[in-house]
Amino acid sequence: MKPRLKLPAVGSGPKRQQYIQTCPKTTTFSLDRRRHISAYGYTQAKALVYPKHGSPTDVLTLHSHSISPPHSNLITLGNLAAPLNPADINQIQGTYPTAPPFTSAIGTAQPHAVPGNEACFEVLSAGSTCKDIRKGDWVIPRRTGLGTWRTHLQVEEDKVMRVDRDGLKAEQVATVSVNPVTAYRMLKDFTKLEEGDWFIQNGANSGVGRAAVQLGKMWGLRSICVVRKREGAEGDALKQEMQELGATVVVSDEEVMEKGFGERVKEWTDGGRNHLGLGLNCVGGDAGMAMAKVLDPGGTMVTYGAMSKSPMRVGAGMLIFKDLRFLGFWVSRWGDGLPEEKKKTIDEILGLIRDGKFKDVPMMEVPWSWETKKEELLEAVQGTLEGFREGKGIFKFGDT
């Protein structure tokens, strides 16, 4: 049984009635989540914050603050789920091109920033002039840099976009706007691929890679999926998992570097008669160039990450004789520049999830309740920097 809501000791009569009238009601949250609403309608919130760039374990602290009732076009949001992406860590470190602003808006003694770019929020209350968003709606950030590693926040209505919550889990909504959208746009926007054509990608078991495999399969594309080598049963299990998602061929990063890999590609593509026109690269360095070498003349290599932190050395022959194109894609810039197209893409992907046609990336849930200690949260953040993981880290908010 869920615990009954116990009103604070605010006396009786008008003062108690004022509490009852100002305490916002919720739809999907359990009633005990309202226990952090004060007698005057203020929401008690917590956020991970940092005053300067550096290692997450060195600079992040857990800050408590109050949020006043919303007015005019403001909305108060309760967080349901927020993923931990490598880009979020890079922003804290100061190595990412964009970063959330340093402000004192949530009552810190000196300006701090709140990390995190993705989340699924529920609208707890809305100001009187809000037009399109109502209490109980689920929303996601409209642009990057909102700062999502927190239990609650208050923003203008136009800072978020509403999503249809029917048939979806919060973690599915929270993780839709970066990885699946990146895969979707790279397969659609850079070169024309016909049904039966091939693409090759590294980091294939990442969030983007898994999304590309599934979308490609739906659209009739065939794929060569490169993953980091794993020994024995672990490697066999990953290969089977990728094939079940829709991968045509699964190979290790070591195989791609071997002499003769190009001949194997020709065998898979019927002697080169089937078009291999697109490469999706999140590794860079020599591993990325090994993929570029097997692309057909006129092919396109799209780089969206650089996990190896090594430069890609493009030979002149690739440009002159094979006429390869080397391009980059940054989903944050794309989405911020084309918010309506971003919304359409997200709605389409969520529709596929709702219909059971698109599988979630494996996730490692990190519970975040009001009693959760800073050390528990920082341990999860640190795990994002490590190598092999069982799944994508995601904060799952409970009694906050």
H-E string: HEHEEHEEEEHHEHEHEHHEHEHEHHEHE
Supply the helix-strand structural class: alpha/beta
Residue ranges: pLDDT <50 for 5 or more in a row?
Answer: 1-35
Question: Looking at the structure, what is the overall shape?
Answer: elongated
Helix percent band:
25-40%
Question: Would you count the extended β strands for me?
Answer: 15
SS field, number of helical segments? 14
What is the gyration radius calculated from CA atoms? Answer: 24 Å
- Percent of sequence in beta strands: 15-25%
Q: In whole angstroms, how far apart are the ends?
A: 18 Å
Q: Mean pLDDT score, rounded?
A: 90
Could you give a short account of the major beta sheet?
7 strands, mixed
Compose a concise summary of this entry:
With 400 residues, the protein is an alpha/beta fold.
Task: Kindly describe this structure.
With 400 residues, the chain is α/β, with parallel strands linked by helices. It has 14 helices and 15 strands. The strands form three sheets. Strands 3, 4, 5, 6, 7, 14 and 15 form a seven-stranded mixed β-sheet that branches. Helix 12 packs across helix 13. It is elongated and about 75 Å long. It starts with 13 loop residues before the first helix and ends with a strand. The N terminus is likely disordered.
Distinctive features:
single chain; 400 residues; alpha/beta; seven-stranded mixed sheet; six-stranded parallel sheet; 14 helices
Indicate the topology.
Blueprint (H helix, E strand, L loop, with lengths): L13 H9 L20 E7 L6 H4 L1 E7 L6 E10 L2 H8 L26 E7 L11 E4 L10 E5 L3 E4 L6 H5 L4 H11 L8 E4 L5 H12 L3 E6 L4 H14 L3 E4 H5 L3 H8 L7 E6 L3 H8 L7 E4 L12 H5 L4 E4 L2 H7 L1 H16 L8 E6 L5 H10 L8 E6 L3
Parallel strand pairs: 8-9, 8-11, 9-10, 11-12, 12-13, 14-15
Antiparallel strand pairs: 1-2, 3-4, 3-6, 3-15, 4-5, 5-7
Helix pairs in contact: 5-6, 5-13, 12-13
